[in-house]
Structures are given as structure tokens and as C-alpha cells.
Write a sequence for this structure.
């Protein structure tokens, strides 16, 4: 096992008859990248480790996590299950809970220990890596989160975040930056520090079953 290869750290956290949850390490793409046949990705790992899933779209991956984001990644074992779980992730039926840990720049003052935001997240223009954030928008752009402070040090705060309803692209990253607390390492959204971005999908609840992914070192203090 190559300790420098992120794919070497992929593991199965839980397996059920119709789905499984992987532990995705930071530093690896969720799906294979166009024109990069040999680049490491969760999809490529699934093709090799679980060949029975190879005929499914994206090898059964129900959702995606950003390159720097670690944690719980849900995989379906059949197209019907994948469609059902994707609908649940999108808020169109079913009940899936999604919890994250994020380390953000700055401290919350005046004893603010919990909060929430409801914001609109929209693409800026073709080719832009960022999303734009507004206080109002069309229903299909709205993303909601609630959060609570877990701990803090001299300059950063560890928050636990629950994604409510359908997730939007960069919802946690762009949302906290809009609130004045970009994620540590997230220079795309104004962080002072260089990456990697400190975001971890810590827990997912599927069909009434909760699966947790151990926290990375940066979230343990």
C-alpha cells in the first residue's frame, strides 16, 4: 500500500444489501475526469474493487464530494436504488440526513454557538469555479444549513453542519464565506490560508441507518 496514494485509504464503512458507504479520503476525485483515464478517482477504484458495479452509471455513486473533501460517500448497487437515493438526496422523496465537519477562519463572538442560513447559490458564468451567493433566488437555487460550534482555537472554529434538503454546489464553502467565515484553506472563497480545504462528510443516515466516518486530524482538536 502506497501511503502517498489517496486511493490506498479508501475503505468501506458499511455495506447493506442495496447500498454501501465508502470512506473517501481527501485529495481524490469522486468521478473519473475526462481525458484523464489513469487519474485516481473513487469511480476508478470501484471499477477495480467492485466489478459488479461497473455497468452502473458512475459505478453506482449517488452523489459527489469535492476533491479536498473527505468522508461518507454513498454508493448504490442497482440503478433503481441509485435513482431512489438520488431523489432522496435532492429532496424529492425519502429521508437522508447529511452531517459535515468544517474548520472555518475566525471566531464566533458574543457567545454565538449555533446558527443557520438559507441562501441562493447560482453559477457565475461558464468556466467559473465559484458560485454566487444571494439572500434570495429561485426555489431550485436555495440551500439551507444549520450549524453549531464544536470547538475553537486562537484563529479558527470547528463547526458541525447539517445540510438540510437538497444540497447545492459549494453550499457549505460558499455559504460560510458569505457569512464571513471561509473554510480554512479555501482560497477560492477568500480564505487567507492555503489548502487543503478543511471539510469532512462526517455522517450520513440512509433508510434509517446512520453511518459515521472517523474525523481527520484537523477536526479532533
Amino acid at each position: 500500500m502506497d501511503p502517498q496514494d489517496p486511493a490506498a485509504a479508501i475503505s468501506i464503512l458499511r455495506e447493506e444489501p442495496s447500498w454501501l458507504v465508502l470512506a473517501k479520503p481527501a485529495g481524490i476525485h469522486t468521478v473519473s475526469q475526462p481525458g484523464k483515464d489513469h487519474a485516481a478517482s473513487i469511480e476508478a477504484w470501484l471499477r477495480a474493487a467492485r466489478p459488479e458495479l461497473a455497468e452502473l452509471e458512475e459505478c453506482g455513486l449517488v452523489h459527489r464530494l469535492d476533491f479536498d473533501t473527505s468522508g461518507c460517500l454513498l454508493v448504490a448497487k442497482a440503478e433503481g436504488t441509485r435513482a431512489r437515493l438520488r431523489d432522496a438526496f435532492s429532496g424529492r422523496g425519502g429521508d437522508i440526513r447529511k452531517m459535515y465537519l468544517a474548520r472555518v477562519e475566525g471566531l464566533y463572538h458574543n457567545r454565538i454557538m449555533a446558527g443557520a442560513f438559507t441562501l441562493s447559490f447560482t453559477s457565475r458564468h461558464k468556466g467559473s469555479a465559484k458560485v454566487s451567493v444571494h439572500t434570495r433566488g429561485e426555489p431550485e437555487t436555495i440551500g439551507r444549513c444549520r450549524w453549531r460550534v464544536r470547538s475553537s482555537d486562537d484563529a479558527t472554529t470547528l463547526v458541525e453542519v447539517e445540510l438540510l434538503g437538497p444540497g447545492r454546489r459549494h453550499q457549505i464553502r460558499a455559504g460560510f464565506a458569505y457569512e464571513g467565515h471561509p473554510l480554512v484553506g479555501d482560497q477560492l472563497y477568500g480564505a487567507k490560508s492555503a489548502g487543503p480545504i478543511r471539510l469532512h462528510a462526517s455522517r450520513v443516515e440512509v433508510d434509517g441507518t446512520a453511518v459515521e466516518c472517523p474525523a481527520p486530524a484537523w477536526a479532533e482538536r
Remarks:
- Residues 79-89 form the longest helix (11 residues).
- The two ends are 28 Å apart (CA to CA).
